[in-house]
Amino acid sequence: MSESQIEQAVELLRKGQVVGIPTETVYGLAALINSPEGISRIFSTKKRPFFDPLIVHVSSKKMAETLTTDWSPLADFLAEHFWPGPLTMVLPKAARVDPMITSGLETVGIRMPKHSLALSLIDRLEEPLAAPSANLFGKTSPTTAEHVRSEFREENLLVIDGGACEVGLESTVLLIKRKGEQYQLSVLRAGHVTQSVLQKSLGGARFQFSFTEDIDRRQSPGQMKHHYMPEIPLVLVRNPDLTEQDIRQIAQNKIQELPDQVEGVQIKKVKRVNKMAELVLPSDPVLSARLLYSELRRLSENKSLDLLFFKMMPEHEQEAWLALMDRLTKAASLVLK
Ligand code: TXA
Ligand code: MG
């Protein structure tokens, strides 16, 4: 089944089509990096603005080296330790990388996904695949093949079914800059590979590095204020003292005042809050990450609901929850403090 799907995918990708692919993080919408037609089809299918760069997926370190002008000892070390896996490294781009992929930036995001079907597809193609998450721009990311199919019903898209994603949240995006032996690192997007984990493994290898907060938004143009929005408005409740009645009332009033759009992303609103449902996640952050997007999608299917809410607890302040809280904050129409 999957073998014949891979054959079919190879053929379509070589013709400049896009294909849904499984990875361990979320499903991707892939095109060959040397197919301008395929790359532009990614943007049009997702309704994604061109300022948001794509991640390039490889199946070997050797393939990654062809995409950058500076495959440094530190990049090599991180690839050795974290690939295949949910770490994207942002490195100076090689000339062969189409500027459409990088939104005109001088850097390119590269990662090796930890999924046997994705890896064998890239191996068969002998070329990297550019792939953003396979959802419409600003919407909840997909963690099953069915999520992708339902997101693009009209497109008649081939989606390689690789089961439910194990990680469930997008990869950590790490910007790597260097001057000689000195490295400056910035986590542009939090993910399963946390800054402490990176710090610990690099420290053991005696690299000269420091982490900085990269506040230049040009370095990470995809980091919009809103993203991952479910079909029913979500409220993130940061104040533990609020009762359900409070949440209903405050949300009812405040949600009316929200703009319809922020940075091109449509904000989910509702006129009257009658029926609400609480998004409940397990106490384990790894399990919660795996479930988050499918729970948001499942709850949103209940058309009798007006509002979803999530209650933030003190433990959610810990680093292990950082990626998940980042996604929830962006998915929320409103945050109650
Ligand atoms: O786990 C993942 O990374 C998934 C799977 C499919 O691999 N992909 C994914 O792609 O999340 P996407 O397009 O939804 O998010 C890519 C984000 C961009 O929005 C941007 O923030 C960052 O990665 N990015 C990509 N290239 C970059 C670059 N050259 N400089 C800075 N940020 C970059
Ligand atoms: Mg995305």
Short summary of the structure?
With 337 residues, this protein is an alpha/beta fold. 32% of the residues lie in helices and 19% in strands.
N-to-C SSE series?
A: HEEHEHHEHEHEHEEEHEEHEEEHEHE
Largest sheet: spatial strand order: 7-1-2-6-3-5-4-8-9-10
How many helices does DSSP assign? 11
* Distance linking N and C termini: 49 Å
Say which molecules are bound, naming each kind only once. Answer: threonylcarbamoyladenylate, magnesium ion
> How many beta strands in the DSSP annotation?
16
| Percentage of residues in helical conformation | 25-40%
Description of the structure:
Helices cover 32% and strands 19% of the residues. With 337 residues, the protein is an alpha/beta fold. α1 (2-14) crosses α6 (116-125). The longest helix has 16 residues, at 285-300. The model has no long low-confidence stretch (mean pLDDT 94). The site of magnesium ion (MG) has 3 residues, from loops.
What's the layout of helices and strands?
Blueprint: H1 2-14, E1 19-21, E2 28-32, H2 36-46, E3 55-57, H3 61-65, H4 73-82, E4 87-92, H5 99-102, E5 107-111, H6 116-125, E6 129-130, H7 145-151, E7 158-159, E8 172-179, E9 182-189, H8 195-204, E10 208-211, E11 234-237, H9 244-256, E12 261-262, E13 265-266, E14 276-278, H10 285-300, E15 307-311, H11 322-331, E16 334-336
Parallel strand pairs: 1-7, 3-5, 4-8, 9-10, 11-15, 11-16, 14-15
Antiparallel strand pairs: 1-2, 2-6, 3-6, 4-5, 8-9, 12-13
Helix pairs in contact: 1-6
The structure holds threonylcarbamoyladenylate and magnesium ion.
